[in-house]
C-alpha cells in the first residue's frame, strides 16, 4: 500500500483516486482554497458534487489547512490542479514535499516567457521548490485521452501515458495506477507529451466552429453536417503539433498516439472549449462568448492566448517563419483579438510544415 | 472548359460534379448497371435521389450503354465507383480511355494477393487497360476527409488531397476542381495516401463500439459517455497506419494530415460503418450485424476482411511480427471470424510499433 496525497480536488484529480483506491492505496484528497465545498461534501456524504458520484470509501478528504497532515508519509504527490493553478500548487508543494517523493502532475498547458520562449507546466510547478530539494524529488505528468467522469465511472476503459525523464519512476507510478480499466503506458519524452497536452486543447476548441456555423445558417438539427470542416482542422492541428515537436525538441512520433491525436480526438467530442468554439462559429466575437460563459474555465482558450501569443515573438526572433502554425495564429486572432472566423485554408498543409520530411504536400495556390 | 466524364453516379461521384460545374466544366455522369434509377431521375427531374438534391444544371446524365458518347472528347475520366466496383470499372475504362486522358479515382480500399501482398486500388483499376494504352494514361486518386453530402451542399468547406505520381497531372486536376469551398492539395505519395484511405475505414468502424457498449449496459442517452475508449482506438489506429506506411513504402508524414487522421476523424463521426460498429458493441456477433443491415455497403468491414486477412500471411512470411497491428488483427477477428469484442489493450502502443523511431512508448506490462 502506497500513500498518495492529491493537491486539488477537482473532477480529474478526484477521478484518479478511483484506480488508486481500487488498487488498495491510501489516497488523501486535499482541496484548494476554491474547493472548500467539495471537501465539505466528501467529508459529510462521500459525494463529489462535480463528479456527482461517491468517491471510494477509503479516500480521505482534507481542507487546505490540513495539507501538512495529509502529506505526512506520502510517497506520491499528485498535483491535481488545472493549468491556472500550477504556480500556486508549486508554492504549496514547496513546503509539503519531502526528499524521495514522486510528483505527478495533470495540468495541461504551457507558459510563455516575455520573449516568447515556451515552457512546459511541470517546470513551472517545480519552480517554487527550494533548490536543495529539487533534485531529490522526481517530476512526472499524465497525458492522453482521459475524461474524468469516464475514469470515475469505472470499467470505462481509459488509456493514458505517464511521462517523465526517469523511466524507473514512471514504471513505479504506472504500477500504482494500473487496473483492468485504467491502462497506463510510459514515455520518457516528457517535453513531447506535455506539448501535445497543451496544443490539443488549442485545436480542440476549433472543433466547435463547424456546428456553430450551421446554427448561424439555421441548418443545425437538419441532416446537414459540417464534419469535413472539423476534420480538416483536426488534420492541420496534427501537422502543427508535429511541427511544434520539432521546434521544442519533442519526439516526432509522440503526437501520433495517445498524447497527441488521441487526446485531441477526445477533447474534440465536446465539453466547455468546444462549446465556446461553437458560439464563435455562430458569429459572436470571442469577448462576447467569454461573457456568456461566466466563471467557466476555458483551458483551450487560455492555451491559445499563451502559445499563439508567443508565435509573433518567435517569428520576430527568426526562430519560426511567418507561415508556420497558420491555424494556431488564426485561433489566436479569433480568441485574443476578437477577429472574425475566416479560416485561412490556403496557408494549411504547406511545405513550410514539412522538414525534416521532404514535403508533406505540394502547395496548391 | 474541360470535359470530365464520370463513371458511376453514386453520391460521392455526383457530389464531385458540383465543384466541377461551378468552375464551368462539362461534366458527364455515367451510371453503372446499378445506377439506372439514379440516371433516370436526373434525366427527368435533375434530382439525385441519394443526395436528395438537384445536380448542377450543366451536368448531363448517361445510362451505361451511352458511355461511349459520354466519354467522347473527355480529357478527364473520373472513376466514381466504390471499392467493390473497381475491377468492373477498370474493365469498362479499358474501352473508354484514350491516349492522354487523366484518370482520377475515388474508391478507398486495398486488394490482397493470395500470399498477403497488398495493392492499392488504382493498380487494380489500371489492370484491365491494354498494355499499350497504359503508359499513355495517367492515374491519380482523391484522399482526405470528404463527406459527399457536404461537398454537394456547397460552401461547406472541404479539404482533400489529390495523389498520384505525376506532379504536373495533379496540378492540372487540382486546378479543375478548386473552388472557394473545395480546397485541393496535391501529394506525390500515391501509395501513402491510398493506404491511409483504406486503413482509416478499418479503424473508423471501431468508433462505434463504445456507444454500443453503453447501450448494452443501458447507459446510452444518459450523461455517461465512452469517449476515452474511442480516443484510445483512434490513437492506436494512427500508430498502425504509420506502421503500414513503413511496411508498404508510403511517407511516414502522410498519415499526419488530411489523408490519415483527417479522414479517420470524419469517418469516425458517423455513417454506416460506425453504425455496424455500434451494433457489434452491443454484443452482437458481426454475422448478425450483417444480417440486420441488408444491402448496406460496408467498405470498412470489407477493408478489415481484406487487409486484416493479409496480416497472418505476411506474418507467416516473416515480413511483419505477430505483435504488429494488434488492433487491426482484433478487428479482423471480430468482423471476419465472429469473435467477441475484447480489446487487447496491453498489446497496443508497444515498441514493436516504433522503428525507425527509437520507441514510441515503453511497454507497460
- Strand percentage of chain A lies at 5-15%
Strand order of the largest sheet of chain A: 5-2-1-6-7-10-11-12
Approximately how much helix is present in the residues of chain A? 40-55%
Number of helices of chain A: 16
Number of strands of chain A: 12
The largest inter-chain interface, given as chain pair and residues per side, is: A-B, 71 and 71 residues
Gap between N and C termini of chain A: 62 Å
The main pleated sheet of chain A reads as: 8 strands, mixed
Task: Report low-confidence residues of chain A grouped into runs of 5 or more.
Answer: 352-365
What can you tell me about this protein's structure?
Two copies of one chain form a homodimer. In chain A, a hairpin with a 4-residue loop joins strand 3 and strand 4 (53-54). Chain A is globular. An eight-stranded mixed β-sheet of chain A has the order 5-2-1-6-7-10-11-12, sandwiched between helices. Chain A has a two-stranded antiparallel sheet with strand order 3-4. A two-stranded antiparallel ribbon of chain A has the order 8-9. Residues 352-365 of chain A have low confidence and may be disordered. Chain A is 45% helix and 14% strand. In chain A, 58% of the residues are buried. Chain A has 365 residues and is of the alpha/beta class. The first copy, chain A, has helices at residues 11-15, 17-22, 36-45, 67-70, 86-96, 121-127, 148-152, 167-177, 190-205, 209-216, 227-248, 258-268, 272-281, 286-292, 299-316, 326-337, and strands at residues 3-7, 26-30, 47-48, 53-54, 60-62, 76-79, 102-105, 110-112, 118-120, 138-143, 158-164, 182-187. Chain A has 16 helices and twelve strands. Chains A and B meet through helix 7, strand 11, helix 8, strand 12 and helix 11 of A and helix 7, strand 11, helix 8, strand 12 and helix 11 of B.
